[in-house]
Amino acid sequence: MGHKSLATIIALQRKTTNIRNLCILAHVDHGKTTLADSLVASNGIISSRLAGKLRYLDSREDEQIRGITMKSSAISLHFPLGMNEYLINLIDSPGHVDFSSEVSTAVRLCDGAIVIVDAVEGVCPQTQVVLRQAWLENIRPVLVINKIDRLIVELKLTPQEAYIHLKKILEQVNAVTGTLFTSKVMEERAEKESEKQGPYENSGGEQIYDWSAGLEDTDDSHLYFSPDQGNVVFASAIDGWGFSIHQFAQIYSQKMGIRVEVLLKTLWGDFYLNAKAKKIMKGAQSKGKKPLFVQLVLDNLWSLYDAIVMKRDKEKVEKMVASLGVKVAARDLRHSDPKVLLSAVCSQWLPVSQAVLTMVCEKLPSPLDVASERVEKLMSVGARRFDSLPERTQELKKAFLECSNEDAAPVIVFVSKMFAVDSKALPQNKQRPLTQEEIAQRRELARQRHAERLAANQVSENPESANTDTDVNCSFPKGQHSEESKEHFVAFARVYSGVVRRGTKVFVLGPKYDPAQALKMLPEGCSSADALPSVPHMSCCTLDSLYLLMGRELEELEEVPSGNVLGIGGMEEWILKSATISTSPACPPFTPLNFEATPIVRVAIEPKHPSEMPRLVKGMKLLNQADPCAEVLIQETGEHVLVTAGEVHLQRCLDDLRERFAQIEISASKPIIPFRETVIRRPKVDMVNEELGKQQKVAVIHQSKEEQYKYPEGVQVDSSGLVTLTTPNKMATIGVRAMPLPEEVTQLLEANGSLIRTMEQFSLSMKEGKALEINQRTLESIQDFKGKLESHLQGRKWRDAVNRIWSFGPRRCGPNLLLNNLESYQRPSVWQCLEGERVPGTALRDFDNSIISGFQLATLSGPMCEEPLMGVCLSVERWDMKLPSLGSHQDSMDGEEKVSDGDSKQKAAQEPWGAAEAYGSHNKRWPDVSVDCYGPFSGQLIAAMKEACRHAFQHQPQRLMAAMYTCEIMATAEVLGRVYGVLSKREGRILQEEMKEGTDMFIIKAVLPVAESFGFADEIRKRTSGLASPQLVFSHWEVVSSDPFWVPTTEEEYLHFGEKADSSNQALKYMNGVRKRKGLYVEEKIVEHAEKQRTLGKNK
Ligand SMILES: Nc1nc2c(ncn2[C@@H]2O[C@H](COP(=O)(O)OP(=O)(O)OP(=O)(O)O)[C@@H](O)[C@H]2O)c(=O)[nH]1
Ligand SMILES: [Mg+2]
């Protein structure tokens, strides 16, 4: 990068109104990096001939080889427009689903986005996702419809057809925006409503609300993409052209003498030119006329392509070139590839960078235009609301809005990710081109040395040695080599307020930092330079290097004013993945990034040579830091596990580990596929779909009698499925029954994990005697959640179940329920927080917690293959306790007598021996009871509860649940059959198939088990010669229909499957796979009557 342009950029960084921070978002392969190339070329960083081919921002080798972007990277460009100069901080993001976390990190730092849509493929799944992400972050999008050349060359549409096609694409995009907008208005309205309700509730005032209100009086016209609004550009990034209708309006207003404003309104839409009347009229479609857009814009483009690419009509081309007034080099005219000529003409006539950057500068907001709504959203974490933050924190909102460059303004920086760079790439280690004086100086030095050497050797030679240049190179400071292998991390960040300078001391605030807590601990008016007491999630450090991000290169900077994107070096010790940096301790941590992808693919990693383990561990740590989405953990088995978002992401992480972070040979296990275990209702039909009639039932009963055998001593199962178990010391007996939960309930539980966790925290704090404050909005969602649960848990079996919930599991927030169906035991409900009057410290029956712990353990790993349970309800129907002191009393104690009322503990708290009175029917002191909570007995109870749950589970028909991906595949009719073939081979299921309008493509929506997905994308690509490439996104858990424990019992089944029934059983295969991996016992059929195969002819 030349010094001049660096100086320009540094100067522009201070003109906040002229800064645009934006990212390019799109579905995979819609041309983001290609477009970025054209924009980069406009600054002379790469040659315009190479633009579109180089993919400059794809700086990694694997990105170039695979042709997809994997990391988002930033570059700063300057752009003169009229009297103004603009600074564009551009971030290119990946489109592949596996890397959607990189998109989140990019979107957070921007104020606007260029959304690209492929003119042929239209709106694709990732397009919707990125539009949603832009929406969630409150950033404004503009649209580029790219690859229009494909409509001409590939689809061979006429201009009229192309116009209709483009209109449809715009409608699709606007439909997505529309849905997002309506949902937001609804949400806001509901929020306002709830705020209003507060005082009304007390006054008892009745409110009638009009449900459609809010939508009508909110102006949404600026949200939609429309060429006449100036927020749409039509382009072909690869051929280097692009335009907005403004450009054509300008051209034709001069030619035809129509005012620009009129043309702007009519160039896009149902208008046509009445040549006779010299007027623009409405109703082109109904009158069968050519719309203006076709006549004035598309026709020209089409004839240009026709002349240059299709017909190669030299004369016509020359005429056109002359009439367009562009200059084309003679060698381009003669070039054998017509595309060269095409881009030479087009990039002068309608340069894409001009069109896109003009739109960006005019339509996207500068950092100063940040909406106050966005600031509040960024500042309030989790359930906390902006107005509940400390006052000093709220004051910082002003700093955000002002985005001031004054020295007095507090520095606020957000780091959205850390990325690794080679130490060679750092500017301080780079070989800087020498200035003239330095070269002269060095030459002089070398000459002197040379002369000295000559004198020493006393050999007379020509002093003008030819080697001076090499000497110059050699005289670089040594000592870089030792550092070379070290990884350097650069923080990808943006300044929201103040000026960041090198050497500034700052606070680094982790995502869990709480300003309210810190402000209480820290002295008033302290700064990061003072010696301060340690505050959780806060550390102090000095910023030692600041960089301008220039794609593959970094330029060192002294200071960065607010509103700019920057890189910060030397932060690896303070920041893991993301952080907030500020000079004020009142600054809240920014809301966490919205990650769309769930990391689901896990592999265990080992070094090839065991001695290299420490390097692997170190390498994995680095990888964890360098990737926003990858997770690294050590499993209970001691394996080092890497969790990634998908196969491509996994591949990249492994490559990174091998070549960069660990630099050792590693071997990765096959992907570890997660499963869930569940129970279902007893099936009414057998495996051959025959109803289980009376006759066959005999066989089934026979079988279940055999099952009885499996239960160890002390476990009793009655015919209704109630499993009763007594602890080894015979002091407690527990009866548990397992039932399947309705599917909707499981989904509801899964979706509301964080609410359940809040409820759990509340119950915990109640137990400790304090009441945790939960804000109104969270309470409402809890109420809503409870209501939904009640509506799904209907029927005799579930009577009052919601109020009887004892706990959720595993980890106290999972998709399984523990119900308290004990007649005699009333415990505080899990919905405590909803109850008006709160009595902290309500006591529980002793050992209540042991029951919960047992349930947690049981749900964390089920009996089939030690995977977590899902969708199971365990209901406790018996819990008898015999206390040692009462050992002589043989009467069954059903709890009530002994532990009747809730205040036993309260009393116990007041007087140490009070507990005895609670057990007072015998008036005997039993001091050990409170102590015993920690003793071996609670352990026995936990174990008994766990066992009871497991047996109860096993008594029901058990099933595995598999994780499912959804995928959307676009394929042409010819390869459709092969796509189906691959899908059905891998147990996939087609959900939907439709034809994409205006093309010969089919869109297939399918679900596919994660377990079958490895190599799927590759296989599809190979089988269809690269025409179809699926994007796999985790969607849900699904019950695998086959029973892993199935053996033929009915006659029909014997008939169908034979005695051994050794045809493949999908569930059994999965289950045994997991068991084998975990080192559990696997019951496998050994070949029983093996016969040696003989080659009969020979032996006889
Ligand atoms: N015909 C045509 N092809 C294009 C155009 N723009 C890009 N391409 C091609 O589309 C392919 C993908 O382009 P990229 O720029 O890598 O796409 P991307 O959106 O950056 O892809 P990811 O970063 O992987 O999401 C490349 O082969 C380009 O040559 C265009 O305007 N017309
Ligand atoms: Mg790309």
UniProtKB/TrEMBL annotation:
One of its GO terms (biological process) is cytosolic ribosome assembly. Residues 17-368 form the Tr-type G domain. Residues 891-907 have a biased composition (Basic and acidic residues). GO terms for molecular function: GTP binding; GTPase activity; ribosome binding. The keyword Membrane does not apply. Keywords: GTP-binding, Hydrolase, Nucleotide-binding, Ribosome biogenesis. One of its GO terms (cellular component) is ribonucleoprotein complex. Gene3D superfamilies: 3.30.230.10, 3.30.70.240, Elongation Factor G (Translational Gtpase), domain 3, P-loop containing nucleotide triphosphate hydrolases, Translation factors, Yeast translation eEF2 (G' domain). It holds the Pfam family EFG_C. SMART domains: EFG_C. Residues 885-907 are annotated as: Disordered. This is Elongation factor-like 1. It comes from Denticeps clupeoides (denticle herring).
